Request: fold
Amino acid sequence: ILDTTVPQSLHSVIQYRIDSLNRRTRLVLQCGAVLGQRFSFGILSLFEAIKQNLVEQLAVLRGLRFLEEYPPPPELEYAFLHPLARDVAYQNLPEEQKRILHGKIAEQMEIYLDKRIPEYYGTLAYHFERANNVAKALYYAIKSGERAVGLAANREALQHFERALYLLEHSGNGTARRIRECRLLCVIGRLRRILGDVTGGMQALDRALRLSVELSNQHLESESAYELAAARQVTGEYDRAEQFAVRALKLAHNQRRRALEAQLHNILGMIAWGRSRFDEALVCYGKVFGLGLEDEAPSVLADAHNNAGLIHWQQGRYEQALAEMHQCSELAGRMGDRFRIAATVMNMGIIQERLGRFRAACRSYENALELSERIGFRQGACAALANLSNLCLVKRKPREALDYAARSQQVAHDIGDRRSEAIAEENMGLACLLTRDFDSALGHFSRAMRLARAIGDLERQVSVGLAKIELDLERPGKPVSAQRIRSLVRMVEAHRFRDYMPRALRNLGRVLSSNRKSRAEGETTLRRALAEAQQLSNMPEQIACRRCLEDAKMKP
Reply:
């Protein structure tokens, strides 16, 4: 396509210079244009029509400043000095000749490349598509996507799969074609979700599910329903997620697809966790362990260990949590799975932080963030930013905490992860509280509470409730009743949110010790909070409790 931003006079000059070349030299230039802006000598020499005296012809084109040479390693390459020269040379070819040249070079590349062919899947897809060979273009577009997934290049993979879907949609309407379309839609839906486009992912998956039902293909129906369950779970739509998961689980069980069964137990565990039903979640993960899939589906087993570890962490069982994380890390490393490696490194950072190993925790979070951003794992990046914000709050660095939390909130909002968005809003509020910007803190806490209630997340409601109490304890003229905090303590006990107990008791102790009549009870409560934090090896809370005890002793 002619670049209209380039003056017509320049286009005419280039056209004149190309027309002035002898026929053989011009054909060499046009064959190079078929290959693209940059091409290797080895691939160019596959064109039979220009093999004779090719080196001399290339030397002429270099001398005329059409091409520049890039010597090996890895191999001798050439590039057009000006992209417009490539455009004009390509446009001069008749459409039928373009089609023939693209087809011939693709067929020759299949033979010439041999074991290197995976590196050129995308190039082959391009040439076969330009040659109107839809079947081979589709084959190589899918192979390109699969290779990109293996390299954790998910954005590139999505582009290849979406191109494959476009080609498929223009290649007839038989049953076999519709089955391939359904499979592609499942893959596209999953990749869009991973890359943060949850809405676009669900649209693709809805199409896949409808198509699987129309085809009466229960194998594809179970896969589509599983992917929809995973997407709905991310957005906190737990009822819909559970419906899809139960539907898929029944189908997977009937089909004896144990790996998919395990994936669905994982999803059901995540849904139970989101609803603060921790025992139910651990039962789900236990079912995954019971299927014995270490060789058949190690990635699913790794997820279950990771999720179980996080629940043990939240309930204060740090040694069990670390054991689960190490299991996950070992499996992820064995598979070379960078997504799970990023998630596990980050989660181990959480435990390191709780144990007071702040430098190690910071390194873990930063490594997880760097890897997540490099591979396009936006959920991982969102969580790593939130944890860096938490760590800055512990270190009483409000500006850094606010920056990390704001970045986390933006990513969470973009990908539709309302739970992570609630966490980010709470962290921004806590950072504002440290700077005594009470109005901004209240605004963030209020938004966090609305999000937590919207998705029915009791754990987040408890956390934000405690944050609001901490705000009111600092604001002048905002008395906090002990009864208000005791109700949260009871909720923590009832739902076994043990990791929150030191914080809840610490705030109760602060309120009680501020009143002369209940000061003794307040100090006792603060000591109980410290003991809980020590029992949990929760170093940040131990620091906070000791600070409160010192403040209580200094009061007249």
Remarks:
- The beta strands are 38-40, 67-70, 77-80.
